[in-house]
Amino acid sequence: MHPLNKNRPLRRIMLASAATVSGMVMLLALKPHTTPTVVTDSAAPAPSGSASAASGGSGSSTGAKTVTGDTVGTRWGPVQVRVTVKSGRITDVTALQYPQDNPRDQQINSYALPQLRREALTAQSAQIDTVSGATYTSEGYQQSLQSALDSAGL
User: Fold this and answer.
1) What's the rounded Cα separation, in Å, for the pair 108 and 132?
2) d(C-alpha 48, C-alpha 56), whole Å
3) How far apart are CA 142 and CA 117, in angstroms?
4) Could you tell me the domains of the chain?
5) For the whole model, what pTM was predicted?
6) Which of 1, 10, 98, 123 yields a CA-CA distance of 20 to 30 A from 53?
7) Are 122 and 102 in contact (CB under 8 A)?
8) CA-CA distance, 115 to 70, in Å (whole number)?
9) Which of 71, 76, 70 is nearest to 136 (CA)?
10) Number of Cβ within a 10 Å radius of residue 78
């Protein structure tokens, strides 16, 4: 005998009610992504070894110059990078700020940031490929990198 037998309408009502309640519980359990907080350069603390968050330039006795890029507000959160330049070449790129509010952001950026860094060091510019699945972070990374390179005079 079929569980939704027409001779037992109460069973159909109970199954439909249980399915509706289960669906509503799953729907309400979804958490929306938090709204990104845009940090302006004047509110951000200056990283150690740099003159300010906006220009971020500092020189050392080795001739290396470290420059912090602008903070770029993306859909999922702010992105900011710091670049080290020596003899006109990019020697290091570090992501200072990036979306990391939830496990999915952390998963995406643990994969994307090393790729973006590798691309920037290889290309020696901000003209780098976007990482699939991390489009907003990639675009913010490129913009912040470009502003840092502009400040460094590259």
Assistant:
1) 10
2) 9
3) 10
4) 1-30 (no CATH), 58-152 (3.90.1010.20)
5) 0.60
6) 123
7) no
8) 20
9) 76
10) 21
Place of tokens 């003159």: 51
Provide the residue type at 64 as one letter.
Answer: A
pLDDT digits (tens, 9 = 90+) for 110-126: 899 999 999 999 888 88
- The radius of gyration of the chain from alpha carbons, rounded to an integer in Å, stands at 24
Contact 89, 120 (CB under 8 A): no
CA 48, CA 116: separation in Å to the nearest integer? Answer: 23
Q: How far is CA 3 from CA 9, 12, 22, 23, 94, in A?
A: 10, 8, 19, 20, 61
Query: Is the distance from CB of 144 to CB of 136 less than 8 angstroms?
Result: no
Tokens of 118: 């590798």
| Residue pLDDT, tens place only, 27-72 | 777 765 544 444 333 333 444 333 333 344 455 456 788 888 988 9
- Specify whether the CB–CB gap between 130 and 53 falls below 8 A: no
Chain centroid to CA 150: 22
Q: Which DSSP state fits 124?
A: T
